Amino acid sequence: MRIPQQPRGNNRRFISTPRYLEKAETGKEGWYVYGAKDKQGIFTVQSLKPRALVQLKPERVELNLQPGQRYIARENWQNTPERKGTFQSILIDTSAQNREQAIKEWKEGDYGLVIHTFGGIGGDNRERISGGTVTGHFSYGVAKVVKDFFTSELQFDIIYYQVYAQNPQGIISGKIDWSAYSGDLQRGWVASRPFSDVIVKLDVLSDLTIANQTLSFGRKLLESIEIMMARYRTGDGTGVSSVTPSTSCVQDSSQALYIAMQKLKQQVISSPELINWLKENPSQVENSLFGQLKQLVQNLNKILVPSGVIRADWQQNAEVLAGVAGGERLTTGETVLSGLRSWRTMLPRRAHDEVSSIFLHNNASLWFLRTNQILGWDETILPLAPTLLFGQIPLFSTAFTRLISALTYPLSPEDWYLSLGLLLIYGLIVLSIGFKLDFLTWKLVDISPKKCFTILQLFFLPAFIEELVFRVLLLPHPFEEVSGIEWLFWVTLSLSLFIAYHPLNALLFYPQGRNLFRKPIFLVFAGLLGIVCAISYAITASLWPPVFIHWLIVVIWLFFLGGEQKLTIN
Q1: pTM, entire model
Q2: In what order do the strands lie in the sheet with 87-92?
Q3: Do the strands 137-147 and 87-92 form a parallel or antiparallel pair, or are they unpaired?
Q4: Does pLDDT of 477 surpass 80?
Q5: Per-residue DSSP letters for 415-468?
Q6: pLDDT at 47 (0 to 100)
Q7: What value does the mean pLDDT take over residues 456-464?
Q8: Lowest mean pLDDT segment, chosen from 116-130, 315-329, 409-423
Q9: CA 492 to CA 530: how far, in whole Å?
Q10: Most exposed among 8, 111, 221, 498, judged by the fewest C-beta atoms under 10 Å?
Q11: CB 321 within 8 A of CB 315
């Protein structure tokens, strides 16, 4: 058997190397070898797959939601360069009672949805990274639990559904087996990049039959990706498939997911029999499964349509493929604005983590297969985790991500009702205390044009600016899924700084408030305002409800409860 050393590419890097392969920890259970005999009769290896990687033997099983979410958000890609040459197999199942039950849930013949992402190449022979962002790659796929011919053990057989732009490696957009995409010594990335393959097992991804109607979310997703892969092979007839902010592996795999959801929705609303059956049989198991499917689709939609405004090309393509828009053709998004409307699926890392989290919160079982430059050892490179925007500049990246998330997260009527409820509770507490201590007095101020301009100014400062700093930038966004203790720490720090800011601001920049902003009762009310705004932000995940609460409270206090007069007293 011969394992050839592949030539260097245009970037002077090896795509793979057999160097020290015999010592690789990943090969401790043996290798699956793919290839053919050459003219001399020597079996020449084309692809390698570690047996240990695809075995149903996780090194760790998480049974609770919070540790599972923490693994997705932090641990999955943690210390990636230091883990070079290793792999991890992690199972997260919040429905299982113990480790054995979690593993036994995966039976021969079961299918799982694959969420695939790879990262970047660092080290001395690193690839160029722009703006501190390691973009990586994203795709969906299918994993089947099969019985191995040689060992009779259960293992994963993985096929990727690659929406792949034209590239120097010669990887073609289409269905590609693990051995041909990952483990191929000439074109496979698993030797030079870190991989994360998440295998998702969830009942509602399979066929669900209700009133003689078969709803199959999984099949519709794969059909939509098949169409997208075909489009990438031809470039929609132009012969060119390139990457832009609005068209890419991750954006268009996400578009396929959105189209599948819309096709499923169209199937439901066009079937009166199905709708009537659901109304007449509320206690049936199928009704419960349909409710789970509906909830999953709603949660995924928040990621795909983060601002509540659907991309025009996604909308039209969904209507065409669902048979709603007649014979109109499929279109391609070509503007930066199109990309921004689906910004949460613009980078592979974000889509990978958020889609995985949605499935976890919908009671899916997730099996993570994480590799870090396996299949040989090249000392000139290191695996780099894919990042969010500016991810290699941690503080800036975190602040930017929180800002975008808080500005664009879609709000429901319930979010506003809840915020109004918090505002009412704050008002009842403050009014009862303020009037009792003579801190508040009813006094209506004439609203002149100048006052109207002041009211508008108050929306930006203090309301918008202070909420942006003390809530959005200082507090973890709800999607970060931090522990309760960590959240409490940041809320306490944010609240302390928010209270201390007022007398400091008066001392340095706002002399009218020097006496008032030091009074204990004012600082207590400011602290209560900070608590209310923090709760509103935690529940709605949006900047706008706390800004609205903050702004309305300041306006009412200044112009109706004597605040303006108190600020004029020296």
Answers
A1: 0.91
A2: 60-62, 87-92, 365-372, 194-201, 111-118, 137-147, 154-162, 174-177
A3: unpaired
A4: yes
A5: HHHHHHHHHHHHHHHHHHHHHHTTS---BPPP--HHHHHHHHHHIIIIIIHHHI
A6: 97
A7: 96
A8: 315-329
A9: 10
A10: 8
A11: no
